Amino acid sequence: MTLQSNAAPLAPGAAAHDRQPDNARRDAFGRNASGPLAGIVIADFSRVLAGPYCTMLLADMGATVIKVESPSGDETRAWKPPVFDGQSTYYLSINRNKRSIALDFGDPDDIDTARNIAAGADVVIENFKPGGLDRFGLDYASITERNPAVVYASITGFGSAGGAALPGYDLLVQAMSGLMSLTGDPEFPAYRSGVAVFDVITGLHAAIGVLSALHERSQSGRGQRIEVNLMSSALSGMVNQTGGYLLSGNVPTRMGNEHPSIYPYEPLPTADGEIVLAIGNDRQFRTLCNVIAAPELADDPRFSTPPDRSLNRSALRPILQELLAVRTASEWFDIFTEARLPCAPINDVRGGIDFAQRLGLEPVVNVGTGEETIPGVRNPITFSATPASYDLVPPGIDADRGDILQWLQSTPQA
């Protein structure tokens, strides 16, 4: 069975203009919803980062997300500091626009409730260990018996075959995939990324898979299972580094802030600090040489092409450092920006937010309505007709049990 909602979902093959007007759209709980996924219900059995980040983005787009938690809650609720009003900012950063119900999988009644939620949803997203939901009747095969049109997304660390028993932590994948071997100064030990980058990439891949499967279902009426894992997302996400190895046999190594194929493409010192240059072609390099009053460098055979500059970077670097030392990083940023050269100051996170605000990107939004609001980072996708919304603050544990149970009573169950 498929969800019966107030949102007038498209029948398979229906044209987009057959939808009700945006101002008539509601989510599964009757709340006004303007996003492109209004009317879609997601049963979210995921926790920590990859899954919750995926479902938050989909919730911003109007989907109704029911966050199913254990009675102790998502682990990130306890990941402190930092905190906001005593709550973990980690949890708050990735769980807006959701509704929470706490269910104990040791309780048969709670398991029945979980099954009913999955049976009434358009999408199920989970990140249990492979096979971990089988004994509860929440696996794909069991759910499709009642809900054959469901889109069921599984997120794991290393897939459901040979890596099924391995714990799926981002740090482990950074180590095993090779990313840590690429991160940091070559004279020092390997470093992890400052963000759980593969959790984020996997969450994005999961969102792409869900949206693609929903589109296919709108044409055929068929649901399907999606599987993503951190290791595969890592190897895909390292793009030119993994591709370079496969195509050339070259095993990349740590180069600090340098790029293996382009130069200058790194932070360089100025009179009072560093500025990042990202010179990717000959036109940009010639412009740089003119701006720093050394036009002859562009015609020097050691530096005249990208491969030459990359090969002879040890000769070019001290020349650039001497020329850049006559001005401050701020002065060079203004000069290079005026010349349309790719450059950047090295900000901290506060500086990054401030810079985005100066550009008019409006990176900070108020999450929630009325007096209960918290700041959050804007969804990075802008829709001209169906904008993202930020109506619900991240829920407390089991905060929406009553509404969710009431929704289940009104939802046909197969």
Automatic annotation (TrEMBL):
PANTHER family: SUCCINATE--HYDROXYMETHYLGLUTARATE COA-TRANSFERASE. It comes from the Bacteria. The keyword rRNA-binding does not apply. Residues 1-30 are annotated as: Disordered. Residues 16-29 have a biased composition (Basic and acidic residues). This is CaiB/BaiF CoA transferase family protein. It comes from Arthrobacter ramosus. Gene3D superfamilies: Crotonobetainyl-coa:carnitine coa-transferase, domain 1, formyl-coa transferase, domain 3. GO terms for molecular function: transferase activity. Keywords: Transferase.
